[in-house]
Amino acid sequence: MIWAWAGFLLFVGIVLALDLGVFNRKAHAPTMREALIFTTGTIVMAVAFGALVYFAYEAHWLGLGLAADAVDGRVNDGRLAAVKFLTGYVVELSLSMDNVFVIALIFEHLRVPLMYQHRVLFWGILGALVMRGGMILVGAQLVARYHWILYVFGAFLVLTGIRMLFSSVVEKEEEVEGWVTRFLRRHFAVTDRFHEQHFVVELNGKRFLTPLAVALVLVETTDLLFAVDSIPAIFAITADPFLVFTSNVFAILCLRSLYFGLAGLIQKFRYLKVSLALVLAIVGVKMLAGKWIKLWLGEESNHVLLGVIFAVLLGGAAASWWVDRRRSEASGPGGGAAAAPQFQAACAGPDEFLE
């Protein structure tokens, strides 16, 4: 089993090294085409890894798939493991959409130049891997030892979904920014000017954090907060630490390219928050009523869950597109122009956030 973990971490290290050392060695503003190519690449890699999971668990390569899954008590064969991996990947990726919007707000408030945003997201990914890895290992141990913790996770997810419907992402982001920046300014010297790609600079013999470092801390903090919501969600699907971690990693790898591809367009998905709230609630209900759902749906319950999540996300996207189209037609030529500044207005912050 340890070799499976080592091989996967080596693979992730190679991907990140190619990302920073080859494709983005020089600071530049990624184009939409670059973002879409990288997004497509990560999705293709995730699907290919799902196929690898099938063969690895079917043949028990490197000790995979030998122990019973604490969630459903079944030993994961190739087909079941692949379905759980892909379902977890879709759940984590969908819940990352909200994180994309918050990151966009952070960068807008701090006036982070587009050409430096990739560097923040790259190191943010590394931090997220470490934090989520620790949370997953702890969560897997809890589920294995105390099965009733799944009911706690389920109730938490349902309440989180309800809360999401009535809360503002902007308010959440502003609250996080407020206490994090106050903490940093209280304990560190912070300059209000960017110094290229540097997180720390030395001025007059004294070390200062740059706004880029502040942005990195904020990105890491928000990812930690979102992980509190998303990590319990995947334990409705599986408690196999390898499946949980790998599905999370592929979702995180896709997050950076999702940001550059969707940050400017995400305001068009007006029903995104509703879709994500429904996903959390559905996963929470699955945790709370797992035994009855399994009796009702049989061994195909994981396939049904994956289909329902896809339907909710596609339904939200289709409804957003349809409403925007109807409003655009109703307002006539130029009607869409008034809506364009909506994202900029939502992101607007003080002229000098760090003053």
What count of domains describes the coordinates? 1
Pairing-aware structural class of the strands and helices?
mainly alpha
- What's the number of extended β-strand segments? 2
Helix percent reads: over 70%
Average residue pLDDT:
83
Low-confidence stretches: 335-355
Notes on the protein architecture:
This protein has one domain. It is built from twelve helices and two strands, in the order ααααααββαααααα. The protein has helices at residues 2-23, 32-58, 78-109, 114-145, 149-166, 169-187, 211-234, 241-262, 272-288, 290-297, 301-331, 342-347; strands at 200-203, 206-209. The protein is globular, with a radius of gyration of 21 Å. The relative contact order is 0.15. The model is unreliable at 335-355 (pLDDT under 50). Helix 2 packs antiparallel against helix 3 and helix 4 (114-145) packs parallel to helix 7 (211-234). The chain has 355 residues and is mainly α. A two-stranded antiparallel ribbon has the order 1-2.
Concise account of the structure shown:
This protein has helices at residues 2-23, 32-58, 78-109, 114-145, 149-166, 169-187, 211-234, 241-262, 272-288, 290-297, 301-331, 342-347; strands at residues 200-203, 206-209.
